[in-house]
Prior knowledge:
Blueprint: H1 12-15, E1 26-28, E2 36-40, E3 43-47, H2 57-61, H3 81-88, E4 96-100, E5 113-116, E6 122-131, E7 137-145, H4 162-165
Antiparallel strand pairs: 1-2, 2-3, 3-4, 5-6, 6-7
The structure holds iron/sulfur cluster.
Residues 11-12, 52-58, 91, 93, 95-96 line the site of iron/sulfur cluster.
Amino acid sequence: MAADREDVEDTTERAGSGGAESGDGSESGGRGPGPRAYQADGITVTFDARVCRHAAECVHGLPAVFDTTRRPWILPSAAAPEVIAEVVRRCPTGALAYRLADGAAEAPDRPTTVRRTSDGRLLVRGELRVTDATGDVRETPRAMLCGCGRSAEPPYCDRSGACGEHEG
Ligand code: SF4
């Protein structure tokens, strides 16, 4: 799975901090913490920079839609909603999510699965409710959790342990 890739890109140091420029898709959510929404006919994509760990499934999977050199960096009008949804589901951390125009959000995997990568991350998919060290609760169909105990943002992986050391 590409979440194990070593060619990790820093996609959202840029993408997540950009301004709310207009484009084919409209962007909302402000500059504060919390997900931003990017809308087009048929789909709304949301992005939560706080949990993105730059596995870059999005930019590799659909560069016409996910382009960190552009503002807005997510352009949901650039592909069919079903195609975007398929790529969003590859995001291992759940930083990306979507809702289709008919109201359908991503259906969580059943049964819930947990997979440990070779470098120690725990990739979890299912109907998840994750509580972090501050008590913040996040409901998500996907999460990348720390498997080495060295994360400063438990239970999420922050790439500071063995997984981070392997990344160039
Ligand atoms: S796939 Fe998800 S975690 Fe990876 S860079 Fe894109 S938004 Fe971030």
